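The data are passed on as follows:
___
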Amino acid sequence: MSLGGRAGAADLRRVIAGIEAKADFSSAAVGRPARRAPVARAFDGALGGGLSEDGLHEIVPAAPQDGPAAMGFALALAARFLDPPSASGVVIGERFANLEGGALYGPGLIAHGLPLSRLVLVSVPDAVSLIWAMEEALKSGAPAVVAAEIGSLKRYGLASSRRLALAARKGGVPALLVLAGAGGRADGLSTAAETRFEIAAAPSARGPAAAGRDLPGPFACMARLVKARRAPAGDGLRDRAARLEWRCEEKTFDDPAISLALAAASGDRPRAAAGRR
């Protein structure tokens, strides 16, 4: 196969996409029972019941300014995996991503449902160090979840994502990776991730006033499921967007309302029936 010119590049992209489609690093692929953590009713059908607890899951901002919302979504998922009281997690941040989007804030993590006593926060200088630290943490099998935010994607692709997916499977630990540098490109990525969400910021409901000030309400976002490797054929749920609101006390997302046709009010029926006699 020639790799010269535009035709060669297109051929290469098709080959990579084919490799990605055939690659499967989940529990089901090796005969182990799959354990899954539900996300929300809007997506769980396409996810086979939820996020696998030994897979690589990517979160991509819908636009560069949605990076904090993408990290908030990833941290909410991490809080779900930390639900057992004895569980602990690892959160890894690249220095560049921290400078662009801001470093994590302790009181904010607590308000988000993540106890600081059960978190190991790691700061690394670059993307290479982040991928290495994430891979080692996953392979160890010690944490209940590993979440990370990577700014530069020059060192992240099919090969590095495959290593992370294999490490997650080996350790039986979910990997949540925020691709901060991929804002607006969720549909064009070729990686070995099992799932991929695109996240946009959404206004939250106002909280109760305190000391004369209005407080922001629970974290909210617009989520779109871009990729779901384990989705049943013809489920119709993939590439569907929903507004999600995080409830840190229950460690769950509020499911979006489902619109249904309303029946006629029962009070009108006797009168209508009487007119037909």
User: Anything to note?
Assistant: Residues 46-205+216-253 form a domain with the Rossmann fold fold (CATH 3.40.50.300). Residues 19-23, 25-33, 258-266, 269-277 have pLDDT under 50 and may be disordered. The first helix runs from residue 5 to 22.
